[in-house]
Amino acid sequence: MRFKILMGMLFSISLSMAQQITVVDKTTMEPIEFVQIGNKGATKMVLTDAKGQADIAEFGGMSDIIFRLYGYEPLEIDFKTLEANNFKVEMASSVFMINEVVISANRWSQISSDVPHKISRLTAKDIALQNPQTAADLLSVSGDVFVQKSQQGGGSPMIRGFATNRLLYTIDGVRMNTAIFRGGNLQNVISLDPLAMENAEVLFGSSSTIYGSDAIGGVMSFQTLKPQFSLDDQPYVKGKALMRYSSANNENTGHFDVNVGWEKWAIVTSVSANKFDHLRQGSKGPDDYLKPFHVQRIDTVDVVINQEDELLQVPSAYSQINLMQKVRFAPNKNWDIEYGFHFSETSSYGRYDRHTELKNGLPKYAEWGYGPQKWMMNQLSITNYSSNAIYDQMSIRIAHQNFVESRIDRKFNDNSRRTREENVTAYSLNADFTKRFSAKNNLFYGVEYVMNDVTSTGIREDINTEISAPTSSRYPQSEWQSMGVYLNDEHKITEKLTLQGGVRYTHYLLDAEFDNTFFDFPFQEANLNNGALTGGIGAVYSINSKTVLRFNASTAFRSPNVDDIGKVFDSEPGAVVIPNPDLKAEYAYNADLGLTRVFGNVLKIDLTAYYTILENALVRRDFQLNGMDSIIFDGSMSQVQALQNAANANVYGIQAGIDINLTKGFILSSKFNYQMGEEEMDDGSLSPSRHAAPWFGVTRCSYTYRKLKLEVNAQYQGERLHADLSVSEQGKTDIYALDENGNTYSPSWYTLNLKAMYQFHDNFTVSGGLENITDQRYRSYSSGLSGAGRNFVLSLIANF
């Protein structure tokens, strides 16, 4: 008898220490991975593994345990019911969802129906089917983000009429923007590895309350693979290997990742290597996009080489490697500690649009490209679950990043090569807290510190004698700092109405020292010491379980950075931008209204309208240096320009989405984006905004049957006439097509694409497609590089 009592006690103790649950698909009864199990206050959260299993001992006795995964109806179950069901949960798939899990809105896991912002989400399954070559392509296939390209090794997102340093990138919750993110097009997003992504989210509209400076048009949040623990005494091993080929640029990609988990320790290792040849554009389209020549150095002379294949865009080839290593440790149910290391490096690559520029009938440049772009990040995150008076959950992120980029240019038959290199070291600390005061009220608050140290050098070398000497750098030697504190509250007024409101104060400092050896600037240093207060309020009203209304009003800001204040560069032919140390922050005021409606399991409609006002906008305007409006720069007389708080801008538009369940595995979906913007000019007149893209979208028809998924889609962009181009874009004959009057314009275009994925074995999946089936020659608005012509893609994935 005593033995039975003892065994019962031991069993009870072990049950309280670890309780394993299994989640399966209600139809197929197969285990479901990445199901998020948590409570309403988001104070506790675990994920199921590849076996559909998770340890939920910490949820013992709770009455509001919620199971969520994109593509499945969320379930709310109490612990007693789970016990009665022998800790097995069956989730029903759902074609259309209003309630999906998002994390970008407040850095915490939330239900999208409680968030007033519009959020677009891409899962690992979406990424696998679409097969994007880079993270920029990943954003583009979403249908919600417009991507501009000046070279193959790049991609600059545009969201709601804003781009570059008015958008914010985060990777695993860490800010990626640096003090040299510029107003021109940015290529930093390609440092991220799409094959190592768990998911990606885009939060639309101003979000400075949570994220601080730069989050004016939106936030792009990337979550990489998270190490998973074992639920028993056997190691949990999971991984994949991938090989991919694409014909339009002879892509060769290899990827490998593996997760090894024990009960308290887990590691993830990921490696990707890409090699891209020169990109071939389509055969049917404007001849203005053709450049059937390139420059080659023969002996000591630059020679124009006529290409046999006029569709090849030379130079555009490059290669890239990405590495990631994560280690996770959970000593007990209250602590979760993770260290992550990321590294990315590209080869040198040409900026294609600069190679299309001509001077006196000959190429203007023999060389214009970027040196290896390198990014490295060390991150330590510490999460604590502790229901005390201060917080229920605390998350601390400490990060160190290093960015290296360079620009290399040499004019045609000029022996002088100029190399400018930038090195940015970034340190950041984020401490975020959440406190649940009741079932109806959640408080989010935190602090942030960011410091960037910028080093910039310039070298001019004679390529014949190999003698080099210093030349002007692109930036001054600088230090930029930002300190912020925020508070955000979510309150459920009724079961149907949820309000969110928040406020943030940010103080920013900048100290820059100018080298006047090469320019006679009337100053030697620049200093900024200012603050910015932002806030927002939003509401979500659930008319019923199928209809949700959203309203959001917020302010945002962007503090001047080193690129704004201190850059020296040739912005366009005949112009040079010089430093301006008298800049202040620009402010945005945003309002948007959204509606999501689901009609049974047949139709889903999502509509969002928005309007943003930007004041004290930092824009490039004519300037003077020591009383002169023009100076000799790089051998040419150039108009002096500088960034100034000289304009206001307005952007408005709509985002629309529709999904139709055609039954028997067929789904038709479409996304459409329309935006218009205008900005104030020197004389008070208005010009269309440069970064407000023409209307664009994607329409997909997909079919799913067991382990087969097929998709036919069309991607498209509207026309932008010459009169509707920004004044700063109208003269760029090198990147735009010409109309019958010889004026620049951006033609409309479309591509038809076929995607397929089939799991022919438990461990093997083949994925591929035929892109741009009709071989269109097209160029996305504001891009200097044409899109790929007809492209065959094939990848083989091995899972273990």
TrEMBL record:
- This protein's species is Brumimicrobium oceani
Q: Where is the signal peptide?
A: 1-18
One of the protein's GO biological processes: siderophore transmembrane transport
Q: PROSITE patterns of this UniProt entry? A: TONB_DEPENDENT_REC_2, TONB_DEPENDENT_REC_3
Q: Does the keyword Cell inner membrane apply?
A: no
Q: What is this protein called?
A: TonB-dependent receptor
Origin: domain of life: Bacteria
What Gene Ontology molecular-function terms does this entry list? siderophore uptake transmembrane transporter activity
List, alphabetically, the InterPro entries matched: Beta-barrel_TonB, Beta-barrel_TonB_sf, Plug_dom, Plug_dom_sf, TonB-dep_rcpt-like, TonB_rcpt_CS
